[in-house]
Amino acid sequence: MSSVCFVLLPDSVLKTYQKVIAKQKLCPEVQASYPSQLFFHWMLGLMITGFKREIKIDDVFDLNPRDQGRRLNPLFDIYWDKEVKKAEAFNKSYFPE
Predict the structure, then answer these.
(1) What's the domain of life for this entry (predicted)?
(2) pLDDT of residue 42
(3) Is 27 helix (H, G, I), strand (E, B) or coil?
(4) What is the rounded CA–CA span in Å between residue 61 and residue 65?
(5) Counting beta carbons within 10 angstroms of the beta carbon of residue 22, is it exposed (0 to 12), middle (13 to 18) or buried (19 or more)?
């Protein structure tokens, strides 16, 4: 059985959320073609800006979603736990208590 949940937000909260979303600068890499990704053509605008003047925080776009911490942290934790277990096994075999 599936369920649907609707959340009613006050207008002030909704408008604030819309402002935050509007301020986000989507990473051009997300929509770049394969050749553009291969040759970093999607970075050209930022490189030209950096050539003309000092780059400011407003010039920089958001990270590609695949590179953001909310996606990478769980994956890192999985592999980190495996390495911790291997290190513990190694320590027990070479340094018994």
Answers:
(1) Eukaryota
(2) 80
(3) coil
(4) 12
(5) exposed
How far is 85 from 91, CA to CA, in rounded Å? Answer: 10
DSSP type of residue 30: G
Q: pLDDT means per 10 residues in the chain (97 residues)?
A: 54 62 72 82 87 91 81 87 94 83
Q: Tokens 């490189």 identify what position?
A: 47
> What is the residue extent of each domain of the chain?
18-62, 64-97
Between CA 4 and CA 25 the distance in angstroms is: 30
> Six-digit token pair at 16?
């604030």
Which tokens in the block code for residue 26? 């989507």
Q: What is the pTM of this model?
A: 0.46
C-alpha–C-alpha distance, residues 49 and 40, integer Å: 15
